[in-house]
Amino acid sequence: MMRAVAFHGLVYATMGVMGIVGAPFVLWREAWTRAWQKRFCRAVFWFLNRLYGVTIEVRGAVPTGDVIIAAKHQSMLDVLILYNALPRARFVMKRSLLWMPAFGLYAWRTGAVSIDRRPGSGATEKMLEAFTDAPGQIVVYPQGTRVAPGASAPYRRGVARLAKATGRGVIPVGTNSGFFWRRGGTMTGPGTAVIAFGDPLNGPGTRGDLMAEIERCVEACSDALAHQIISKRG
Fold this sequence. Notes:
By secondary structure, the protein is an alpha/beta fold. About 45% of the residues lie in helices and about 15% in strands. It is built from eight helices and seven strands, in the order H-H-H-E-E-H-E-H-E-H-E-H-E-E-H. Helix 1 packs antiparallel against helix 3 (about 30-50), helix 3 packs across helix 4 and helix 6 runs parallel beside helix 7 (about 160-165).
């Protein structure tokens, strides 16, 4: 309990201080904003390591071009690892996050797009409009929400539609971050939190074919990472 209080206190205090100190960067250059945000990510990794013995590992080739990242989402930790690893990440996120103090301002400045996830809200159309010519790595969570290790949730086809419309390759990404930072803020450790980049999927066949391949790759990678954690913990 004391470790949890210390960890979350440090995270939010750091977010507040860095958000205020770095606010002038938002008015100048996107690159400065990103560099400052990555400093925050690395601060959180340091807190995790010192308090819980959790290390961070990125596997596979980190994409640097204009691609779509179709990622498994298990916790806030995988968001931070992806943002720190990618040179120019642009996230699709739920609308409510845009109004978070400091966080929302920085997300807006670095090209994140907020969407309403309710059916019929036009979320996919908004993604297409925002990202058709946007440079960088577009990060989409096809399941639309955090999904704990071992749980399931349907994959939505917006990411395949975006890939077909923009002509960009899709990089599937698996993770085991949910074992270390669980929904509700419970932290565990020690261990290695992993983000694993897969091989590019260049839109084979129909949108349905591409969606099936995205789901297969993301789930297979995440399941393999989960099995490694479970085996080590016995």
